[in-house]
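User: I'll paste a sequence; please echo it back and then give the predicted structure.

Assistant: Echoing your sequence first, then the prediction.
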Amino acid sequence: MRNKKTILSASVLFFLGVYTYGQEKDSIKTNKDSIKTNNVEEVVVLGSRAGARSKTDSPVPVDVFNVKESSLILPQTNIGQILNAVAPSFTSTVQTNSDGTDHLDPAQLRGLGPDQVLVLVNGKRRHTSALVNVNGTPGRGTVGTDLNAIPSFALNRIEVLRDGAAAQYGSDAIAGVINLDLKRDTGKLAGQISYGGNLTPTANDHTGDFDGQNIQLDLNYGNKIGTKGGFFNITWSSQFRNPTYRAGTESGTLYNAYNAIEQRALNDGVNLSSLFTNINNTPNSQQIVNYIHQYAQGVNYFNNSQLAAIQGASTIQDIKDSQGNVLQKGLQSLLNFDVTDPELAYRGQSRKDFNMQVGQSKLNNHQLFVNAEVPINDDWKVYTFGGYSLRHGTSGGFYRRPRESRTFTGLYSSGYLPQIGTDIQDISLAAGIKGKWEGWNIDFSNTYGQNSFTYNIQNTGNTSLRFASPREFNAGGLRFSQNTINLDFSKKYDAWEGINVAFGAEHRYENFKITQGEEASYATYDVSGNVWNGNSVRPTDFFGALLPGGSQVFNGFKPENAVDKNRQSVAAYADVEFNFTNWLLVEAAARYENYSDFGSTFNYKLASRIKVAPNFNVRLAGSTGFRAPSIHQIYYNVTSTLFTNNQLLEVGTFSNDSQLAGLLDMPKLKQETSKSASVGFTYRIPSVGLSFTADGYFTRIDNRIILTDQFLRKDVPSDAQKEYDKLNVNGAQFFTNAIDTETKGLDVVISHNARFSGFKLDNSFAINLNRTKQVGDIHSAGLLQSPQLEKVYFSEKSRVYLEEAVPRVKASLSHTLSWKDATFYLRNTYFGKVTGADIIDVNGDGIIDFNEHQQIGDKIITDISAAYQFTKNVGLTLGVNNLFDIYPTKNLAASTNNDQFIYSRSTSQFGQNGRYVFARLNFNF
């Protein structure tokens, strides 16, 4: 109810601005200086090679967000979250408990995948991340661009092209293009210091108070180089972000009776785990039995019958007859009952001590970015830009409980919470020369980028190593490098109302590398401390369960997973714009690309803008496009060795070029292809400062690449089973061109500005409606071609991630009111409903249908802030993001993992951190 009132008041404010302006308009005749109408439209360069034009005159929809100005008032500070707040067609939220994805938020445009939007910096292609999103989140199986490797304080503005543009810019630009325009400011040092955190009753695992503290320092300095327009601009940003804690209260079984006795022994200096390595093959079993008899008497909450049964047991294992019937229970059977609550009381612990760390991860982030340009003469200039980013993140995994075999209680008697440490290093450098020669604009450049993930697993162990296990492991890492050379030509001709001709060429080199981890991060060891060979005796826990190998929570990359692969591509394009008259503009573009690994592709685009009236335009576009399979998707692989049916068998993700993929006749990955169409209009009413744009769009993508679920040996056809057996494989998943999709949507943007009596009022309303669905048959192939396996190729969970985990409706209504040195900001953002991926009994009828999912309801998030400039050099901003502390719909019990995940971790709306309050000191000298 409170939010509805907020929306109502915000809407009243929106139209009050229009009304007030209309009332004040009559006074212009008597006091012309009292009102100044802003008729200067923002211009865009994205989507055209003919130079800048106004947004409403563009033949394709382009949004422009002035980050330099809005950074003073916006609650958000990184690029992903800024766009998620201000651009309804854009979606990105902080992930939790998703390994490396916790530190890199998947970003989506128009409901399409993170890898189907192209990112440019100063108009040059940005490299993607090294991370392959293989976890249960939206965008599973994709490789996106790490937007947060660039400090938002380095940006002048962000342009978002909401239209297919692969014919102009190449691979990935199916949903659109995001261009990050760097600052060119000179002559001053500007900066801001921000402090904030989450002030919410759900903080600290729903005990309240304050968490997620964030301190950020941003500095920007620029100066002139020479006297002909040269400059350099440099930005430094450091962020120190604490985690948030949004788990409930652990409700599962934590301790069994053996854990209780083990603790009493430890208190007396006896470590029971030191008395055996494999409980089924130990010569001192009687000593273990005696110790258990002795220390069981110290567990004062055992009742008489329990204690009598324990004292009466003379063996560890059950005594059975020849038929397998139990003649006398051993201690393994007698000590496996739940004693969680009394044992917690004995140890002075609570159930919350065993909570996972659910929420945003801990993060330290340091970034340096430079933009520079130096004229050589009146016609030519050299330029360079790039940066370095180092981000260290720490996120939690699933708690290793004392009662579990994966927990070695000889070292961790109360279990432990393993942590995934990630060092993300990002390097980029572009350099080029551009100028004019006989009427031609020429730009020659080289752009290099590298992104790497290194995994350092902490507070964990290799359980099979028992006491010899380290607590920290280098689990290996991923690295992606890209080098792009561009040569571009463009020229304007005076025929008709103007013609612009552009053409160019591109060469791109890519490298993907997986580095193996240290041996202990992936290996399983036997009782002698040697790597298990499949025949030697493995260590067990007290109950006889084998102790697993590898670093708990994240197994390291094995030597067999290590790859170092590269590929190249060349491209040529042509782009022509015809201004036949002052009311008719037609654009045509074509692009040819050839890749060394899958072949060539040709794409084209036609777009037009028709000026029906001076302030009313109709625009339409149609194009084909493509996305090359990322080199990561071709070569990524990670496997584990498990002991199944008395055999060493492999299970995991097998690369597209693996021997198994070849034996199963899995087709080589090829490009995704798309057909896109859009139609819309723009309308301006300059007298009242209003502009309207509306664009409908349709995108068909064929041969979309997905990551399948696991094809288990028992489920595949007999011919495939034979190939599994040749390589000792029990389960495998692959990247494959498995599905076709269709996306339909509508974008509407209404902008208004007014100036009256010293006030400046800017209002904006934007809404995106979209729907993506899988169409046609599943493209199963080779020996895995079977109707029964189609739900493994494209599972119900994968369908939800693709179609329903991201809001189909998202809208924002924002207002900025300035008066003298004060600025006030109000924004309401509507996030439509989404669907949880878990398949559970939602209606409680005891029957779980194959497509029964929980609906996560729609919500409205309100942000508010106020800024005041005390002097021309110093200002202060105070604000609140999510003013009313709104959270997503709570999970049903079946999806909470013993009350740990109170909110869904498999959807993308607005996160689960709650209210965020902040203060920001702005300064410039």
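The two ends are 45 Å apart (CA to CA). The longest helix spans residues 2-25.
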